[in-house]
Amino acid sequence: MSRVHKIFRKFYKIGLVLFLAIFLLFIFDEIQNLDIKRYLSEHYISEGVQETGAINLVTSVLYDYRGFDTLGEATVILTAAATLSFMTPIKKVKMLGTEFTIIIYQTIIIIIPFLVVLGMNLIFFGHISPGGGFVGGVILAMIPILVTINYGITFSENKLKPNHKSLLEGIGAIGFILLGLLGIFAGSNFLASGQANFGLGNPGELISAGLIPYLNLMIGIKVGAGLAAIFNSLIKEG
Amino acid sequence: MTGGKVVIYVILNMLMIFLLFTAFFAVFTKNLLNSIITLAIFSAILIVIFVILQAPDAALAEAVIGAGLTLTFFVITINKTKDWQNE
Fold it and tell me: Membrane spanning segments where (chain B) (predicted)?
């Protein structure tokens, strides 16, 4: 009896996972075979470039059709960064006790300009090529993280003060909402760029697609500053 | 199917099997640091799968967030919490 119990205790987790996987497999199989006409996705694919001016359809959905959801995601990061900044102790706490070799110091010095260029490229070309404000912002947030790991928290805070990070994050969040309000002033809905007749330009050029590049820039600033602030708070904690 | 497609198909299925192994290891291992490093490897395999399935947007997000940022945050969190080595 106890041996059976032991074997059961060992394998019930795996069995649970397998059961769930088979269950999901049947559900997805049913969904695949359902006879639904996907009007919305067909509309996005066939009309998206004309309506929003962005070649990258993912960006056109994220920042035009579903801009309000992006605002919600940005609010989540804003809330997390604000809460963590509020809980951060003011005193300087000792860093991770790791000493790196000179190879790592020199490599990080060389890498940082490339990271700036890559992040800016991803943000500004978000409506033309894969990428977007969120990914570019995370890459920009990597720079303070690398500087902090490399040179310590004191040097990093001298270079980019936590108050400035919070200010940048606020600028990003408020700028996103103000750009959304532009749609109301133009006589359409909140966060509308394609429907509000903003001059979409030629699809494929850098300055096109109405408000989408500016929304990308705001999200990039906001996410980058927010994640840098979160990291700063985490590393000073306890 | 032509030769190139067969190669891509075999690589995709092998990567999915590795994905399963890394996911099980990350869940069932006792050492938290091993689990985190395995999650980063899981993300790296997932990036290749996303590129094969022609989703470069999701691959970029996964590369930056999954393999880079969460690894940093998890390592620092484990470093800050006490007594993780004695368990």
Answer: 6-28, 35-53, 59-78
